[in-house]
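Course assignment 3, question 2. Fill in each field.
Student: A.L.
Task: Predict the tertiary structure for the chain below.
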Amino acid sequence: MTKLIKDFIKEEDGLGTVEIVLIIAILVGLALLFKKQIVGFVAKILGGFVGAEVNSNSIENTPVNGGVQ
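Answer field:
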């Protein structure tokens, strides 16, 4: 019985899942913290592709579903 308990304590299979969840949570937190800077950067990059300046304020106020109801 003690060998079974020792083996269970030494088992680390679930550790990878916890690490991935923590990394995702940190990335989401950083994305929310720096949302304005990220949106401005993406708008600047997309403006270079389109050839026109993209207003980052209009992007921030756009609904996620594109306005479709």
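Instructor remarks: The CA atoms of residues 62 and 68 lie 11 Å apart. DSSP finds four helices and no strands in the chain.
Grade: pending
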